[in-house]
Prior knowledge:
This protein is mainly alpha-helical. It has helices spanning 2-13, 23-35, 39-52, 54-64, 72-85, 89-102, 107-119, 123-136, 141-167, 174-205, 209-225.
Amino acid sequence: MKTLALLFSLFFVCPLSLWSQSASELLPKLSEALSEGKDSYAVSLFRQSASANMEQTEMFYWTNVDKNSAVAPKLANEMATLYKKKRNYDKAYLFYREYLQYSPEDVSALVACAEMEMMRGKEADAVKTYEKVLMLDADNLQANIYLGNYYYLQAENVKKKLEEDFKKISSPTRMQYARYRNGLSDVFTGSYSKAKKYLQRVLQLFPSTEAGKTLEKIKKVELELK
């Protein structure tokens, strides 16, 4: 009975004929719904229009939607979600940033924004966004996993470079050896320690085999430096 009632209400709010209409046909109805304050109906029309023609609907958002209205962030989030599904990460990122202007502490949107930054090759930006996520939700699994792995890989790359440079010295002096060891120590107290903190948090939240393996590698580095 509940399912039938839900279907009936959907047909009542969104007539079947709307689902086959083009964006050009839907957008005037969207304008009317917005002017009449029918926000829920407007969101439904906006979603259908975007499915029919993303570019045309996006242009409508930028030129016809009152950005101070209560419905504006909902429409921005709709565009972000749809572009993400289409794997248009640049556009998705743009609209997640737009949405976050209205709700800067929305953790799910911040996580999605960080994902888009990562997909766009902006790893450093993703780090900042995930760190903001953890300020709001210290137990966010995705943020802890990303930051743990990011700082571990950063540490590994620096450690590898230090080792390669030191091996090039055929007869290192005590000063050169001390500088090499200090460099390794700095890497451990920096990136390795950060990775350790985040990955330990991961294990507290979820029994991750990969996080456990990485922590064992970090422990091995720590023992080598003693």
